[in-house]
Design a protein that fits this description.
This protein has 123 residues and is mainly beta. It has strands spanning 4-7, 10-13, 18-24, 33-39, 46-52, 58-60, 68-73, 78-83, 92-99, 112-113, 117-122. A hairpin with a 5-residue loop joins strand 5 and strand 6 (58-60). The protein starts with a strand and ends with a strand.
């Protein structure tokens, strides 16, 4: 059983920054790809960013490219999402997610989910 624990959410004004962390209980082939989805009430959960833990290759949604950076501390089994230039439309619950293959990053492909952390960006 792989556990994902998020931290780092909060409230910030537009233009501000936050860093989310996701610690995994263990490295396993089923969580070789880790990253983040976000969801607002009434909308489908959308992929934001992910990283291949073996290669370190990152992938981003167009809406966050150049503003969000995903990284990892392999020794700590932790993935980070640095968010800058935050916008009100970034307001959402952010979920850490993990699966085997970064090439398959849809909701139905995710093997492990965190409980979520709230990010609120005010204008």
């Amino acid at each position: 059983q792989v556990q994902l624990v998020e931290s780092g959410g909060g409230s910030v004004q537009a233009g501000g920054s936050l860093r989310l962390s996701c610690a995994t209980s263990q490295w396993h082939y089923t969580n070789d790809c880790m990253g983040w989805f976000r969801q607002v009430p009434g909308k489908e959960r959308e992929g934001v960013a992910r990283i291949n833990r073996s290669s370190g290759s990152p992938y981003y949604a167009d809406s966050v490219k150049d503003r969000f950076t995903i990284s990892q501390d392999y020794a700590k089994n932790t993935v980070y999402l640095q968010m800058i230039s935050l916008k009100p439309e970034d307001t959402a619950t952010y979920y850490c997610a993990a699966t085997r293959d970064c090439g398959r990053w849809n909701i139905e492909d995710i093997r492990w989910w965190g409980l979520g952390t709230q990010v609120t960006v005010s204008s």
